[in-house]
């Protein structure tokens, strides 16, 4: 079994020393650098570069520069996606993001983690668990999502939260670690009128 196959299976794998993974990450970093250096008003170039990088991306998206990822081919994004500056996606495993997702600045989506055992960690071993973000989700600035997390539809994650466990649909959640604060209700529609 290759290191890439181990990663896909959720097993410990060697990300630091595997030539295939190093090559794929290097190619991805080159595309990210190309994207980040494009002129702000080069909308066609920006769209083409993201479509070259991600495995699936829907219509009508904005990804503000800079943005970084590790492989790109593990990322799927739905329609009407927006991310602000400094989005980091460590996509060692699949990252699936639904429609109408808004991501604030300085957010991180991290599928990769490292063993607690020092010997395994020092060998360069890590694990990768998929992350799923539902439809109509808003991540406030500085949110960090850890490996294996799923965020339900219509949920808001408060700024600065670290999401270590899955969060259900239709809630406001926040904190370190992130926890459900309350349900989002009909009264929330009236707040800003």
UniProtKB/TrEMBL annotation:
Q: What class of enzyme is it?
A: transferase
Known InterPro entries for this protein? Hexapep, Hexapep_transf_CS, LacA-like, Mac_dom, Trimer_LpxA-like_sf
Q: Which CDD domains match?
A: LbH_MAT_GAT
Q: At the top level of its lineage, which domain of life is listed?
A: Bacteria
Q: Which Gene3D superfamilies match?
A: Hexapeptide repeat proteins
The molecular function terms in GO held by this entry are: galactoside O-acetyltransferase activity
Q: SMART domains, per this entry? A: Mac (SM01266)
Family in the record? Belongs to the transferase hexapeptide repeat family.
This chain's protein is named: Acetyltransferase
The record lists the lineage as: Bacteria, Bacillati, Bacillota, Bacilli, Bacillales
